[in-house]
């Protein structure tokens, strides 16, 4: 599995989109920025879409990614658009100088290092991120694992406190639960292989009995419904 292209799921699963329109919001900001960094860009699919939408390209465009399959895909997608893609472990120091970017973005990061984010932002620079909230896809997780503690690490207020602790001014926080429907068990399997934290250690043989139960449930009652949790967070370096 590589990248975050979910085109395979067409006709097999659907997910409601957040009302705020992250790609549109980011494209508007990219269009007036001089230097942009996309942290944990995945396969670069969303960043490439944003750059195509933007009114103009920034003078400096960079991205980071940690996972080798995604790193190669991101370079294929972004290098033709003039983006430098650096290999950087999640949570490690960003390989860029202080105050290098007036816009830093990150869609669904695994971790947000606020000290590093604040360091690479220029004074007046903006951070914009769409994040996965605590308890995302909880119905799906609990079907396979039983009761799951969603924890507090991905709560909007936890992330906002981290931003303020790094000296940033939080300017916007928005949350939404998004209805997701799976129309067959194959879609569930592919999703759990791609979004691996939903059911840690997922394996078809290990969960064959629960997958058979899922198949029977979908056939009898229709799509399996879960809810992904998303929040938008914007902050500014004074």
Automatic annotation (TrEMBL):
GO terms for molecular function: S-adenosylmethionine-dependent methyltransferase activity. Coiled coil: none annotated. It comes from the Bacteria. This is Methyltransferase type 11. It holds the Pfam family Methyltransf_11. GO terms for biological process: methylation. Keywords: Methyltransferase, Transferase. The lineage of its organism: Bacteria, Bacillati, Actinomycetota, Actinomycetes, Micromonosporales. InterPro entries: 23S_rRNA_MeTrnsfrase_RlmA (IPR052939), Methyltransf_11 (IPR013216), SAM-dependent_MTases_sf (IPR029063). Residues 37-127 form the Methyltransferase type domain.
């Amino acid at each position: 599995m590589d990248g975050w292209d979910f085109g395979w799921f067409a006709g097999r699963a659907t997910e409601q989109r957040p009302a705020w329109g992250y790609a549109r919001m980011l494209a508007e900001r990219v269009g007036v920025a001089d230097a942009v960094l996309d942290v944990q860009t995945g396969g670069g699919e969303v960043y490439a879409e944003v750059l195509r939408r933007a009114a103009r390209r920034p003078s400096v465009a960079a991205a980071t990614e940690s996972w080798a399959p995604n790193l190669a895909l991101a370079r294929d997608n972004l290098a033709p658009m003039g983006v430098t893609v650096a290999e950087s472990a999640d949570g490690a120091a960003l390989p860029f100088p202080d105050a290098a970017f007036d816009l830093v973005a990150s869609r669904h990061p695994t971790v947000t290092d606020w000290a590093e984010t604040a360091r690479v932002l220029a004074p007046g620079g903006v951070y914009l991120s769409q994040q996965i909230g605590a308890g995302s896809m909880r119905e799906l997780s609990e079907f396979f694992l039983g009761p799951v503690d969603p924890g507090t690490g991905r709560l909007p207020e936890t992330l906002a406190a981290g931003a303020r602790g790094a000296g940033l001014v939080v300017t916007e926080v928005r949350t939404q639960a998004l209805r997701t429907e799976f129309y067959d068990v194959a879609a569930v399997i592919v999703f759990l292989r791609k979004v691996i934290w939903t059911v840690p250690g997922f394996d078809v043989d290990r969960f064959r009995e629960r997958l058979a139960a899922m198949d029977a449930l979908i056939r009898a009652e229709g799509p399996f419904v879960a809810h992904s949790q998303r929040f938008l967070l914007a902050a500014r370096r004074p």
